Amino acid sequence: MTAQTQFVDVTTDGDIADALGAARAKLKQAADAVRFLEDMLKYKGVTEANGEHYRVKIAYGIETKRVDWKAVADKLQPSRQLVQAHSKVTTSDRVTVSAHKKEV
Asked: What residues contact residue 49 under an 8 Å CB cut-off, 6+ apart?
């Protein structure tokens, strides 16, 4: 069975492995570029940027609450107070990217 990908014809397991490796390498490069570009905008304190094709909005200091379930699991039948005592509040930034609508 031969499958067509945007990278290469994949027929053998080796072809698939090579295509997967190449795709993961491209994904890693793209992820590194995304982090770098996001960091550039955040370093400048940008909250919104409009390009020719995309708009980027950045929300700073977003709090996220996570329950430390390992600590909860260490205790049997946790009460609401126990769950609250082992909950952490963290902050993060949110970057939203959307394509501009094409004018007809």
From this structure: 41, 55, 56
